Amino acid sequence: QVQLVESGGGLVQAGGSLRLSCAASGRSFSSYTTAWFRQAPGKEREAVAAISRNTVSTHYANSVKGRFTISRDNAKNTVSLQLNSLKPEDTAVYYCAAVIASLSSTLYWREREYNYWGQGTQVTVSS
Description:
By secondary structure, the protein is mainly beta. It is built from no helices and eleven strands. The radius of gyration is 14 Å and the shape is globular.
């Protein structure tokens, strides 16, 4: 099992930047594909970015492509999301998620494919 704890959220003006971090505890973090999801008020949770076990493969939602960057450090058991050029529509609770992946380059994108979740961190972008 793995436990996930997010940090780094906050209030930022449009055009600003934030860096979210997710610290994982437990064994074999490098066995997990990880992702960031977000949920805005009144909306369903959606995938934002995902990264494979070996960091080779990444995938982004079209709405954040070119602005957000996902990365991970398996030695430190962390996965991060750099948020640049933030827009008010990026306001949401951001969640870190993980699932064991049998192949090192596997990505998962759907919420139901992930079985470990953090508690979330709030990102608020003011206009």
